[in-house]
Amino acid sequence: MSENPNQPREYDAVLGGNQQAQPPAYGVVLGDFETGKRNLQNLLEQKKWQEADLETTAIMLKLCKRQKEGFLRIEDIENMECSHLQTINNLWITHSKNHFGFSVQAQIWQSVGGTSEPDWEAWCRFGQLTGWYVQDSWLWWNDLKFSLNASKGHLPRGGAFMGWGLGDFWTGCRMLSALAQKLESCEIV
After folding, report:
1. Residue 70: phi, psi to the nearest 5?
2. Is 97 among the domain residues?
3. How many domains does the chain have?
4. Is residue 12 domain-resident?
5. What DSSP string runs through 121-153?
6. Domain extent at residue 57
7. In angstroms, rounded to a whole number, what is the distance separating the alpha carbons of residues 73 and 85?
8. pLDDT tens digits for 115-166?
């Protein structure tokens, strides 16, 4: 495995990248959206941020029928129901007191000049503000701060399997852009 800090390790699969990644085995994979929502709410109420990030991943994979693949594509984000994204975002926003959530990340992305076009400089500025890019190196999912002491927008990051926030520029930047655009079209940001 490459030691390049912008490449994922074996347990840090990237969206569209590692076809061998196994999806997380959290509740929603076996249940429905309401089950996943309850699980996520319980985890967030208990401030179990790491588990909540994995549950968020599981919910999104289930909603997009991508559990087997273990990753999302841009078209999956584009086709996701607004009400589901709104619910997931609201849970993160509520339980983190506006510190974490998709809408927080989208606002940061827009504030650094992020657009639908891949932009390495904007991607790095976004990573610095969220605490994902530290000292010219992208943090692995396992190295995140799963607490409210983390930078604003630090979570959710997509779990170790989906990883829309991994340092992989071409995948992560495009997925974040798609998510920000979807949130805007859904009037969530």
Report:
1. 80, 10
2. yes
3. 1
4. no
5. HHHHHHHHHHTSEETTEEPPGGGS--STTSPTT
6. 27-185
7. 16
8. 888 888 999 999 999 999 999 888 888 889 999 999 999 999 976 555 555 5
